[in-house]
Please model this.
Amino acid sequence: MAIHDRLQSIVDQNDVVLFMKGTPDFPQCGFSGQVVQILNYLGVKYEGVNCLENDEIRQGVKEFSNWPTLPQLYLKGEFVGGCDIVREMFQSGDLANALAEKGIAFKVPAGA
Amino acid sequence: MPMAAAEIERMIKRSLPDARVEITDLAGDDDHFAASVVSSAFAGKSKLQQHQLVYAALGGNMGAALHALQLTTSTPK
Model:
């Protein structure tokens, strides 16, 4: 299966996918760790894909999204952005809005 | 070979001539930078598209010679 098709099936079969360095339990990069913290804070269920374990995925995902770095967050197959954009969206409330719009379950933080 | 701040600024301005670029070396190692880029070219574009414009300006260095760039983009006030 060509890498593009493989990536397409991963993002199609999981509502939320985070291509990252390391795993959700053991992020191995500060930026990946920041997105993991945001998703955990919001109680979002997501599929973490450790790109350090598979170089074909690590390079393939950059072409797939036309985005040169990791982490990369996908919501319902749509590429949302990397750490900077996800953090900005989280702080502005846009991330919660995007999750709600796409019917993805999350925990509304107390006092939010 | 890491990239120097001046090189990053030069590349961004070559693609976005009106850009105001502020670069901070986060770790003093020419490898971890924060950059804020203000340009009218971002008008009407999503954050994702704005960042993609900057990465395109960096011509493939992003994620290679340039390991980490914490990026904020905005249009002129």
Remarks:
- Residues 15 and 111 of chain A are 26 Å apart (CA to CA).
